[in-house]
Design goal:
By secondary structure, the chain is an all-alpha fold. The protein has helices at about 5-35, 40-55, 60-90, 95-110, 110-120, 125-150, 160-170, 175, 180-205, 210-235, 240-260, 260-265, 275-280, 285-295, 300-350, 360-365. The longest helix has about 50 residues, at about 300-350.
Amino acid sequence: MAGALTDWGVAVVLVIYPIAELSTVSFFGSYSDKIGRKPILAASLFITATAAFLFGVAHVEILAFIFAGLFGIGAASKVTTTLSMIADCSSEDNRARLMGYYDLSTLMGLAGGFGLGIILLELGFAPNLLLFTAAGACALAGVLTLILIKETRVISQEEVSIMELLKEVARDRRIQKMLPVYIPIISLYGLVISKTKKIVEEYFDITATDLILLFAMLGISLVVGIIIMGHLSDRMRVRRPFIVVGLIGFGALSYMLVAVPFDSLWTNGLWILLPILGFIAGAFPPAAMAYLTDISSAEARGSTMGVYSIFFGSGMIIGPLAGQFAYAMGGLFPGLAVLVIALIAIACIGTYFLEEAVPTSEKEI
């Protein structure tokens, strides 16, 4: 955006985005169960490209809010179809691994792109240039999707009502039990995304080189953690222990980033904990997404992934707003630090009520 947003303006953009996603994601998920994944995936990439370009040329705050909604629609259609495609191709033997590889691809775009964006902005690159580059990349991805990607939906649902598919998923108590686990952790994602740049600029005396080193340590350790933990989850045929371990790792990592002065990480030798906690946090994404697929039916998989996107959108609403409130009330500490502890505690307690979903016969193989 050509003009700068206030703190609350940033929070509003980060809220409008998931609201738009929430209001459309169920439709896209269920519709992909009816007509297939590929056409919706290609459309989602072109929608996102359009949103990024328009966001780059916006000059007033209200336009940024509108285009943030368009981003949300693009995300709704993209997340449900890509997750459904991975789930369509997976089995209990490789589900966590495939979901882990999917998370790695999204990590490059979300966490990796976010970190790279901060670094490039610190180096003096214009925000508009970054948005236009992202728009071009999304448009190219849409073209490649039409040319290279094959349809994965194999069960015909053309005569099934979208509302019936959604009701089937919403009535599943196993999915309902996931609410107190997924929403708090995704709220923490939203909190980190909305506040990291401000924290780095205002509280850390950090050079661009240090920033690159920080993101490199976290990024590499998280990638390795996702790969190894995904393989272990499939090999051991369990999800819950990896979900809990990943939650604790991500919570401890988030706490260190908001409550520990950056300089002390180096002077006190605490920096070694960053890659360790990044590796541990890598246990959560593949196990959590594999669990969601374990409890879904092939006939309503798109609808199930749509429900996950509702979890994601809800968390991305709660996280930025709660983060802004906590920061306004108590700053980094105790404000944000206490909020991080509370979110992780709720998510960890929620895992107690989850039931392992991998079939017993599979576990005994």
